[in-house]
Amino acid sequence: xxxxxxxxxxxxxxxxxxxxxxxxxxxxxxxxxxxxxxxxxxxxxxxxxxxxxxxxxxxxxxxxxxxxxxxxxxxxxxxxxxxxxxxxxxxxxxxxxxxxxxxxxxxxxxxxxxxxxxxxxxxxxxxxxxxxxxxxxxxxxxxxxxxxxxxxxxxxxxxxxxxxxxxxxxxxxxxxxxxxxxxxxxxxxxxxxxxxxxxxxxxxxxxxxxxxxxxxxxxxxxxxxxxxxxxxxxxxxxxxxxxxxxxxxxx
Length: 251
Ligand SMILES: Nc1nc2c(c(=O)[nH]1)N[C@H]1C(S)=C(S)[C@@H](COP(=O)(O)O)O[C@H]1N2
Ligand SMILES: [Mo]
Description:
Layout: H1 4-10, H2 22-26, H3 30-38, H4 40-50, H5 80-87, E1 94-99, E2 105-108, H6 109-114, E3 118-125, E4 131-140, H7 141-148, E5 156-165, E6 168-175, H8 176-179, E7 185-190, E8 193-194, E9 204-206, E10 219-225, H9 238-243
Parallel strand pairs: 1-10
Antiparallel strand pairs: 1-2, 3-4, 4-7, 5-6, 5-10, 7-8, 7-9
This protein binds the ligand Nc1nc2c(c(=O)[nH]1)N[C@H]1C(S)=C(S)[C@@H](COP(=O)(O)O)O[C@H]1N2 and molybdenum atom.
The site of the ligand Nc1nc2c(c(=O)[nH]1)N[C@H]1C(S)=C(S)[C@@H](COP(=O)(O)O)O[C@H]1N2 has 18 residues, from strand 5.
C-alpha cells in the first residue's frame, strides 16, 4: 500500500523514515485496506516504480528493545501434531521447502540453527495499532532457497503454519523480492533466547518491510508456487482471504 511514510522512505528522506505516527496507523484501517486491496495490481506496479524494495528496514539498538514482546493471534497452537512436536522440544520438527524447487528440503531445527545466522533489532507493526521492538535471530531465507534451487516458474513463497485459524491453518505468502531481501529471515531466536511458543516457535518468518500479519509464525512448510490462485481463496494469506487485507502490506 502507498502511504506517505512509504513514499518518504522510498525517496530516502528522513533517516529510516519508519516512525509510526497516528496518521500512518489510519492507513491500516479496514476502509483503507479495502481500497489498497482493490488497487493491488496498480499498487504493486507503482511500488516497484517508485520504491526500492531492496532497501533495509530500520534497525535499532539494544536500548530500544521493548520490555515485553507482545504475542498476537495464535499464542499456543492446539493442533495435536504441533503439541507432539512441542512436547519433544521440537527435536522431531522438520521444515519442508518444496513446490517449484529442484531439491526439496527437510531441515531439522538443529541444522537450521547451524546455518548462517543474522541478528537484527527491528520494529514490528501490527495493523491493530501496536508496535514492539525485538532482537530476532535466524537464518536468511535466501540461503535455504539457494539450497533448494527455485525453478524459473516460481514467483511466490507460501508459508504453511501449524496453527488452526478460522476454517483451516494460518498461511501467508511473499514474492521473490522479499524472499531474497537480506533482512528476511526464518527466526529461531528472540531477544537472545530460544523463540517462545507465543511468538511462533520453533520457526517464524520476519519480513521486515511489511506489517505484522505477513510474519508467519509456526512455519512448517515453505512452498514455492507460480501463482497464489490455488492457495486458500487465492489472495495469498489468511487475512487477505478472510478480511480483504492487502497482500502487499509495505511499511
Ligand atoms: N501462524 C500464525 N502467524 C501469525 C499470526 C497467527 O495468528 N498465526 N498472527 C500474525 C499477526 S496479526 C501478528 S501482529 C504477528 C504477531 O507476532 P507476535 O505474536 O510475535 O507478536 O504474527 C502474525 N503471524
Ligand atoms: Mo497483527
